[in-house]
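Example record

One chain of 199 residues, shown exactly as stored in the release files.
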Amino acid sequence: MATSPDLALRTRTGEILMSAPCQRIDFHWAHYHIDGSGFSFVALATLSRGSKGVHFKIEHQPTGVGARYFPSTNMFSVPTANFGVSDAWQKMALVHECTHALIDATHAKQHTRSIHDELAAYVASALFNIYSAPSQSGPFPYTPVGIFAAAHQVALNIANATGYAISPTIAAPLRQAILQKNVLYPHPNSSYDNNGIRL
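Predicted structure tokens for this chain:
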């Protein structure tokens, strides 16, 4: 039986994924289609138990990291049981990690390039932030800085365009910003091993 903190994290994450801002996300990048249907699948996975679905672990995070997702174990790692309750950046972090889970689910048994995964996750979380604002001009729940500012600009370019295919030209500044974080993203050819998600 799920512990109380685990159940709260599952419920909270599912609610964020099924929220109107998250369900509005719809874009293509590389071989990925990131949209509300995919996030709905991940939300369903938060309800699964045992060896199925996704799981949560509360533990210390490396410096500069809000949360993590491990596709080999379908495990989300967060720093506290209250992660994502009200803080806008934490909610974005959950959307970011759930984008990795979406890719894990839709590209089972495949090696996907980490640079592509990360770019998709940053754009998805930026769109969530934009769609959570009263208008496309803001004010935004989270004021983006650094790599999040680069993601915000990409997201502004495609906001309200259903199924937009992001071009390499539009993605280039964000790609460069991701690669510059060389502690987390050692080289452009590194990959993630996806094992899929069962409901």
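Notes: The beta strands are 26-29, 32-35, 55-58, 68-70, 75-78, 111-113, 164-165, 191-193.
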